[in-house]
Design a protein that fits this description.
Elements (H helix, E strand, L loop, with lengths): L1 E8 L26 H9 L19 H13 L1 H5 L18 H9 L19 H12 L3 H4 L6 H11 L18 H12 L4 E2 L4 E5 L2 E5 L5 E2 L19 H5 L3 E7 L5 E7 L2 E7 L4 E3 L5 H7 L11 E5 L2 E2 L22 E7 L4 E7 L2 E9 L8 E7 L10 E4 L9 E7 L4 E7 L2 E11 L8 E5 L2 E5 L16 E5 L1
Helix pairs in contact: 1-8, 2-4, 2-5, 5-7, 5-8
Length: 479
């Protein structure tokens, strides 16, 4: 069998490129966590805990009692919240010695939660998205009676407000209010609450009409003013009190970038960095992309001048940027098969940041176990095209297991001069029935067909040239 090494685009592999500092909580099941930023920030702030076995269990269902604890930790801080006790049973199924009795009693007193008509709370039951959003809105200062969060249409009113202020931002898929909330979704909604605006009302007044006293609410919910020293700890000074600015004055988030220059949030707790988390791109491509494609996919209505467009490749800024305009067929940077091109549009400044991350082919030459002085790592040797600043071998810290001589895919930040991710390449062995090779149009005319499946070559293809492949012979390719 002839060995043929090639990086091809059969499956779009999304490699983990999030830059996270050592301050982030290292859960043993961190690879299963979809909302890493939310889980890391919430756990660092001690709003939610992991389990004693070191896991976080991101998809475990959140219970009503655990939700009350999260709300109390948000408002009071974990130390004060942990000291809460219930002088009397808040509900008939929540005795004073119940694990969550103190949290439930506090939330009941503050009218953040409500029980069932039969006088129970059912603390072990799951919590719907609507119910948790209602609790978070209460923590932000919204009055349930004034806003109509009680009665037959309460869920509609809750959804309108919660989605309007962005409590579901960055949720994958559409918000489903009747679905039970899991632990990592709760972290995401709570994180969005940290950056949401606090509200307050004018004082309520009482009007007597005969023997009846009617309570008239003040004006509608209005943003709480913040002219204090905490203003600006969440993004920028805006004169408005965000939740974290009121309750977590030692927690800050600033706009920054990761080591591929993708716009990112940089979170810190006091002076310790929790992590740097890449923003969600407005458009993503893994093949050749033209300026006109970006114009269309962003739904732009006018041209963005070249001076307002920044393009980075592997973390290095490119100088030959062009304007983004309708119908322009100019290729963006070095985009192509296997190159992750992400577009970030700032609609306030009307600027665009485009980042390109290449996926390269490498080989594992050595795997080294952890010691008391150094974490476990592998040594990667580049195959074929390699980043300009990369040495002939690079170390990458990982607990993943690789066989020596295994072919891997890796990404590399030239601004940081280090490998940022490594993943095992998938093997496909079979008889080649068709080989396509065009030096004039490599983006679309460089491919192999094996077992009826066409595999398009990637930008950073390595190994034997497709032009030398013999049809009807067996090869092994790496995806």
């Amino acid at each position: 069998m002839k060995k043929f090494l090639s990086l091809v685009l059969a499956l779009v592999m999304t490699m983990s490129l999030v830059t996270v500092s050592a301050g982030a909580k290292d859960f043993t099941d961190s690879s299963k966590i979809q909302y890493a930023e939310a889980v890391d920030v919430m756990s660092a702030a001690k709003v939610i805990d992991g389990y004693t076995d070191g896991t976080f269990n991101p998809t475990a269902t959140l219970t009503r009692g655990a939700a009350a604890k999260i709300i109390c930790n948000l408002i009071l801080g974990p130390t004060t919240a942990g000291a809460l006790v219930a002088d009397a049973a808040p509900y008939k199924d929540v005795p004073t010695n119940h694990t969550f009795a103190g949290y439930i009693a506090y939330c009941q007193k503050e009218k953040i939660i409500s029980g069932y008509a039969d006088g129970t709370f059912k603390p072990a039951n799951s919590l719907t998205g609507y119910a948790f959003m209602k609790m978070l809105l209460g923590a932000l200062g919204y009055d349930a009676e004034v806003e109509g969060y009680t009665g037959p249409n309460w869920s509609v009113n809750v959804a309108k407000r919660a989605l309007n202020i962005g409590l579901d931002d960055d949720l994958v898929g559409d918000f489903n209010g009747v679905k039970a909330v899991n632990r990592e979704e709760a972290c995401l909604y709570a994180l969005n609450t940290l950056t949401a605006d606090m509200v307050e009302y004018d004082a309520k007044t009482s009007v007597s009409a005969g023997n009846t006293t009617v309570v008239i609410a003040g004006s509608k919910a209005k943003e709480m003013v913040n002219n204090g020293t905490s203003d600006g700890k969440i993004f920028s000074k805006d004169g408005v009190m965000q939740f974290a600015e009121k309750y977590f004055d030692n927690l800050t988030v600033k706009t920054g970038s990761d080591e591929f220059e993708r716009p990112a949030n940089v979170w810190k707790l006091k002076a310790e960095e929790i992590g740097t988390y890449t923003n969600t791109p407005d458009a993503t491509y893994t093949k050749k992309v033209e300026n006109g494609d970006i114009y269309k996919d962003l739904g732009l209505g006018s041209k963005i001048e070249a001076k307002d467009v920044s393009v980075y490749e592997d973390g290095v800024k490119k100088t030959n940027t062009v304007a983004i305009e309708k119908g322009d067929d100019t290729k963006v940077g070095n985009s192509g098969n296997g190159v992750l091109t992400e577009v970030f549009y700032d609609d306030d400044a009307d600027t665009v940041t485009i980042t390109e991350v290449n996926t390269y082919v490498g080989e594992i030459s050595k795997t080294v176990k952890a010691t008391s002085k150094k974490d476990a790592y592998v040594v990667v040797i580049p195959e074929g095209v390699k980043p300009t600043s990369m040495k002939n071998s690079e170390e990458f810290e990982t607990t993943a297991s690789f066989d020596d001589d295994a072919y891997v895919l890796y990404t590399y930040s030239q601004s940081a001069d280090e490998v940022k991710s490594v993943a095992l390449a998938e093997e496909v062995t079979g008889t080649v029935t068709r080989a396509e090779n065009s030096v004039k149009d490599e983006d679309v005319k460089k491919a192999l067909t094996i077992g009826g499946t066409k595999y398009n070559a990637s930008k950073m293809i390595a190994g034997e040239d497709i032009g030398n492949v013999s049809v009807d012979e067996e090869y092994t390719v790496y995806l």
